[in-house]
Every structure is written in C-alpha cells, then in structure tokens.
Automatic annotation (TrEMBL):
CDD domains: IMPase
InterPro entries tied to this protein: IMPase, Inositol_monophosphatase-like
Pfam families reported for this sequence: Inositol_P
Enzyme Commission code(s) on record: 3.1.3.25
Signal peptide from the UniProt entry: 1-24
Keywords, in A-Z order: Hydrolase, Magnesium, Metal-binding, Signal
Pathway: Polyol metabolism; myo-inositol biosynthesis; myo-inositol from D-glucose 6-phosphate: step 2/2
Protein name per UniProt: Inositol-1-monophosphatase
Reaction(s) the record says it catalyses: a myo-inositol phosphate + H2O = myo-inositol + phosphate
Family note: Belongs to the inositol monophosphatase superfamily.
Originating organism: Cyclotella atomus
Essential cofactor(s): Mg(2+)
C-alpha cells in the first residue's frame, strides 16, 4: 500500500473533524413569522391502522418532539444577529468544559418528562439532563423512555496539544467548546425513545431546522416526514468501504493515548480509501442519516468519546427499521457480548456501551470495523 503524504493526511483529518453538512432550512413561514406544522408530521397511517402496542405512546412522543423543537428555533433564528442573547442560553458545564447543557436542554427535558409522567405515571424515564454526571440507570422490564432534549448540544471537545499523525508531522487542534445548537448550526434534534422489555421499541426524532421528523416502531418500519425509509436497499445493500461516506464522532478525550487512538483510526481509513468522511456533531442524526442513505456508516468509541443511551435509543430503532446493522466496535464490557461471546448487534445492542458502529449493510460494518481497529 502506498503511503499517504503527511500533508494530505493533515488536510483530510482536519476537514473530517470540522465538517458539518448544512441542509437548507425548509420550514414554511406564515403570517407573523409563525411556522406551520406540516401534515407530514402526523403518525403514518401504516402504524395507526396496525395492531402496534405503543400507538398512544407514539402519538404523545410526536407531539412532545414537535413542541420541544419549537423551543429551539428562537435561538437558531437569532444566532449571529442583533437579536442574539447568548446569556439566555444559561450554559452550564457537566463533566467537563466541552460537555455542557443549555437552559433550553433543561426546559425541553422537564417539559417532555412532565407530560410523559402525566400520561404514563407507571413508566420509567431516563433523561440526559436529569442524569447529569450521575450513574445512568439500568434498563428493566418496565416501559422506559429515554430522552435527549437536544442532541447536538455537545460533541466537539479537543484539547490543545500536539497529535502525531505520522512520525514526521505533528499538528495542534485547538480546544473547541462551541457546538451545534449553541453555535447555531442546524444539525441538532429532539430525541425520544421508548424501551419495552429492556430493548428499544420506538423512536421519534425531530430536527427543527431541517424540518424533518423521523418515526420508527419495531417491526412497523421507519419514516421521515411520513414517507417510509429505504436507505439500505438497492445499491446501498452492497456498498463497500472504498465507496462509502464514513462518519465518525470525536469526543472529549484529553489524553494523548485517547487522541492518538481516534486520529489513528481516521488515518487508517484514509490510507485504505473511502469516498469521503464526515463529522456532524449529532449522534442521533448520524444514525438517522445512515438510515436514509445520506451516509453509509458511522462509528464512535475509539477513546472516551463513546455515547450514552439517549444518543443511541431512538436512532437505533430508526436505523434498524430502515434495514441497517448496528453493533459494537469492540468489547468494552461483558454486556457487549451475547451468549455466544459475539458482539451484540441490532436490537440486542447494549445501550450503555462506549462503542458503536452502524452501517447500511453487514459487510460494510465488518469491513469498517477491521480497518478502524487496525485488524
């Protein structure tokens, strides 16, 4: 294999880290600047007419996701203008400076959890902001909602230190604390998942600035704005790594070992050859975009950047119902393995895991895993 010039590696890795895909804001405006909610945001009739066991939960989740999305739009519309008031975000840090919550995160979660408690008082709720830096509750057989009030609030947190990509080159990544929602980038969403019998069963994801509502129920399909997702069919079913759009998410790792692991994985991808790479800053949307074929594979968990249950749950159902495969990059705990000591996958996926890979077909998932892990 020919060696990639260090300058190319540097440019490609830097672009991959910083890249974000901007979709046109397609919300229709009415009089007074009010946003009209499209009829495409209704629960698909294929589900309403079925014997789905969670229809009422789904109807509630759609309403709550749309309402929570409205809470995000004022900040988006004012960002970078004379109307912007950054103090109104009331940003507070959690585990570190690059892991923070805004006042709208807290407002959304309190609203969503409150409405769920009213409608289903016997259900459990796991929310990102309520959990904070504490221990994440384990799933039981009770119906459990998993909420991310704004996914895309965190992700980019690089320490300012030298990272060696090649023995002859080193460069510095400056610490970045601004992230998608706080920065006004459109790639963020409200994510509401429901687990039954300890496994994801329903997912609702609303991205207000791209005006997209994803709905998925186990065994009943996945939909975007009322249209069924088929992102893993046709040519996508046989996509190989050298033709793939590969997404990865870098996290808060501040150790040289952790940073080296993340960057070395990207180096191996570039040396192998891929169509292109992306880092979008929203794990939930990463999964939804793989599900609808905008990207081919996404991974996380090379270092301390692994996700949490609220990053996985709703997006997992969307991805599974679109025909994707989702598993772990490697074993991080015994709970990542099934009874045959193989890595769990799909609906058996361990939502508390620190590593994940999801792709449009199983061969691509395995090929990407081997390259990323250096196997």
């Amino acid at each position: 294999m020919s060696k990639t010039p260090p300058s190319l590696l540097l440019a490609a890795a830097t672009v991959a880290v910083a890249a974000t895909t901007a979709y046109a804001f397609s919300t229709r405006k009415g009089t007074g600047g009010m946003t009209h909610i499209s009829h495409h945001f209704n629960v698909p009739p294929e589900i309403l007419k079925s014997d789905c066991r969670c229809k009422q939960e789904l109807i509630l989740a759609v309403r709550l996701a749309l309402e929570a999305g409205k809470n995000m739009t004022e900040h988006y519309h004012s960002k970078g203008t004379a109307d912007e008031n950054i103090e109104s975000l009331d940003i507070s840090t959690k585990s570190c400076q690059s892991d923070f919550a805004t006042a709208i995160d807290v407002k959304n979660e309190n609203f969503i959890a409150g409405e769920i408690n009213k409608a289903f008082p016997d259900h459990e709720i796991i929310g990102e902001e309520d959990t904070g830096t504490g221990a994440i509750p384990q799933l039981t057989t009770k119906p459990t909602w998993i909420i991310d009030p704004i996914d895309g609030t965190v992700r980019f947190g690089f320490v300012s230190q030298y990272i060696h990509i090649d023995t002859s080159i080193a460069y510095k990544l400056n610490k970045r604390q601004k992230t998608n929602f706080a920065s006004g980038l459109p790639l963020s969403c409200v994510s509401i998942g429901l687990c039954l019998n300890g496994q994801p069963h329903m997912g609702v994801v609303f991205a207000p600035m791209t005006n997209e509502l994803y709905i998925a129920v186990r065994n009943y399909g996945a939909f975007r704005n009322g249209i069924r997702l088929l992102g893993c069919t046709g040519e996508k079913a046989s996509t190989s790594l050298d033709h793939a759009v590969v997404c990865f998410e870098f996290g808060y790792s501040s150790t040289q070992v952790g940073i080296d692991r993340m960057v070395d994985a990207v180096k191996r991808l570039l040396e192998h050859g891929v169509r292109t790479t992306r880092t979008l800053g929203s794990g939930v949307l990463d999964l939804c975009y793989v599900a609808c074929g905008r990207m081919d594979v996404v991974y996380t968990g090379m270092a301390e950047e692994g996700w949490k249950p609220w990053d996985y749950c709703a997006g997992l159902v969307v991805a599974m119902e679109a025909g994707c495969e989702m598993s772990h990059l490697e074993k991080r705990s015994e709970r990542d393995l099934d009874f045959n000591n193989a890595l769990k996958k799909n609906y058996e996926f361990n939502l508390h895991s620190k590593s994940m890979i999801c792709g449009v077909n199983s061969d691509l998932v395995e090929e990407t895993r081997k390259v990323v892990m250096g196997q």
